[in-house]
Amino acid sequence: MSASGSHEASQYWRAFFVELERLGFSEGTNLVVERYSGEGRTDHYGELAKLVVRSRPDLVFVISGRMIDHLRSATETIPIVGITGDPMAIGLTPSLARPLGNVTGIVADAGVEIWGKRLALTKELVPSAARIGFLAPRAIMEGSQGRATLQIGVVLIEGTLDSPINPLEYARVFAVLTQECADALVVSDAVENLTHQQSILELVARSKLPALYPYRDFVERGGLGAYAVDIRDFFIRAAGQIAQILKGAKVDEIPFYQATTFRLIINLITAKALGLTVPPSLLARADEVIE
Predict the structure, then answer these.
(1) Same domain for 195 and 56?
(2) 162 & 274 share domain
(3) Where in the sequence is the domain holding 198, given as residue range(s)?
(4) pTM of the full predicted structure?
(5) Sheet-wide strand order for 60-63
(6) Is residue 164 reached through a cis peptide bond, with omega within 30 degrees of 0 on the bond before it?
(7) From the CA atom positions of the chain, what is the Rg in Å?
(8) Under a CB-based contact definition with an 8 Å cutoff, are residues 184 and 226 in contact?
(9) How confident is the model at residue 9, as a pLDDT?
(10) pLDDT higher than threshold 90 for residue 182
(11) How far apart are the first and last CA of the chain?
(12) Residue 3's pLDDT band (boundaries 50, 70, 90)?
């Protein structure tokens, strides 16, 4: 099996391998795992996909819809299990229930409208915000997520990350957000942002930008708020799909699993530090409040 994605998200990988072992597959016993990383070089994803395919794995597990697309172009036969955004919106399959070809996996959002929801929540958190930044790699900014962010009545400032996506690139983009006078920030669920949590949190703190995140981890580490999915659960579910395929199931027999539960989490400690008063109506709707 080949695995591609962020190795810094260690808690998720631990949960992934624990579940695989529970299902009968233990690395070093009856499972060989070759690990690959895009290292933030999004313009080299196509080359990486070809490298992975040339190693002839029995299955590829990948975290990134963009990387899935490159892998699918490189092979029509090797099963691919991925954690991705809406696979129908990016053309991976016409149906979640009946995957097309050799790709299935976990859908990390409820469609592009989720980004309109996150922008609306950001506006509620910071009512005075008229200029909101959106932090995402170029491919996402130019795709369906980026277009969805334009549907609310604010000025969108594009925090577009270009390859190689690394701490220096994040620093460059935050300088642009500052120059463009961003009042708040929405962080996309791109795997690069998951990998570079620490850089993002440090730059957000330095710029004193109120920010809404796609994952709970950010809020636990001092972020203002999140409208979040449970990404640990995604890794566990992906392990289950992989085990089915390794035991002989066909990819088109395994439906995509789509997230249906999103939790609103607000960190009042951070809000106080930013001088924000969170509206009582928003606090009442929050699933979790950190005080």
Answers:
(1) no
(2) yes
(3) 113-228+262-290
(4) 0.84
(5) 34-36, 2-4, 60-63, 80-84, 103-107, 257-258
(6) yes
(7) 19
(8) no
(9) 59
(10) yes
(11) 43
(12) low
